[in-house]
Amino acid sequence: DTGVSQNPRHKITKRGQNVTFRCDPISEHNRLYWYRQTLGQGPEFLTYFQNEAQLEKSRLLSDRFSAERPKGSFSTLEIQRTEQGDSAMYLCASSLPLANSPLHFGNGTRLTVT
Amino acid sequence: DQQVKQNSPSLSVQEGRISILNCDYTNSMFDYFLWYKKYPAEGPTFLISISSIKDKNEDGRFTVFLNKSAKHLSLHIVPSQPGDSAVYFCATRIGRSQGNLIFGKGTKLSVKP
User: Fold this and answer.
1) CA–CA distance, B42 with A15 (Å, rounded to integer)
2) FRET partner for B41 with CA separation of 20 to 30 A, picked from A64, A88, B83, B86?
3) Do the beta carbons of residue B102 and residue B93 sit within 8 Å?
4) SS3 string of A29-52?
5) Ramachandran region of residue A37, left (φ > 0), alpha (ψ -120 to 50) or beta?
6) Which residue of chain A comes nearest to B6, CA vs CA?
7) What does the pLDDT profile of chain B (113 residues) look like in tens digits?
8) Which of A44, A55, A91 sits opposite B99 (nearest CB)?
9) Residue B78 contacts by C-beta under 8 Å, 6 or more apart in sequence?
10) pLDDT at A1 exceeding the cut of 60
């Protein structure tokens, strides 16, 4: 079990730059999720894919954010024109396509916008 | 407005004793509840869950209790071990929304040897 893999682990960028994160889910999991966690808070849902279809999006996912899962395997999360408020831990999770199947999280990508 | 509340930011327990972590929720439509554990620099790890049709679920040292009338759930860890020291998150979802888990802010548990 290789688990959910996220790259990079850390990203420091200047305000206004674009960043892209990658998530590789557990191979047999066809559901993939993106969450964001800021200091002192629990993870907050951003978006969710089943295979390549993006089925849910949070209102937290502003126009500057875009997530893709083109072949139903890995996913990317891009943030355009980053702002300091985007600084957070971005967590990816995956699960089996079963009701109440628990989410398996990766170790996250920590974004710092200076 | 928080829908899932963990009112204790931290909890300290002696090794071998019981740890009780609490969680309150506001929406009676929530039908499935989970507990996740998180170590520093790692993602959350699923611990245990309970459906709203049950009031108790047990897995080894971990038991989750659900009180629907009070909109309250708790996680009991018996006996507590130093390796249990972590941040514990309560999470829930509404019905068919498979992806949108709503998390509390977490409780940091410290188990002292």
Assistant:
1) 26
2) A64
3) yes
4) CCEEEEEEECCCCCCEEEEEEECC
5) beta
6) A42
7) 679 999 999 999 999 999 999 999 998 888 899 999 999 989 999 999 999 999 999 999 999 999 999 999 999 999 999 999 999 999 998 766 566 899 999 999 999 99
8) A55
9) B18, B19, B61, B63
10) no
Tokens of A3: 């688990």
For the record, the structure tokens of A102 come out as 């628990």
Tens of pLDDT, residues A14-54: 999 999 999 999 998 999 999 999 999 999 999 999 999 99
Helix (H) or strand (E) holding A79: strand A75-79
* Residue A99 in this model has a pLDDT that exceeds 60: yes
pLDDT reported for residue A48: 92
**Which neighbouring-strand residues pair with A65?**
A79
Nearest CA in chain B to A94: B99
- pLDDT at residue A81 in the model: 97
Of residues B42, B49, B106, nearest to A42 (C-beta):
B106
Asked whether the beta carbons of residue B99 and residue A33 sit closer than 8 angstroms, the reply is yes
Residue for token digits 């109440």? Answer: A100
Instruction: Record the tokens describing residue A52, joined without a space.
Output: 């390549």
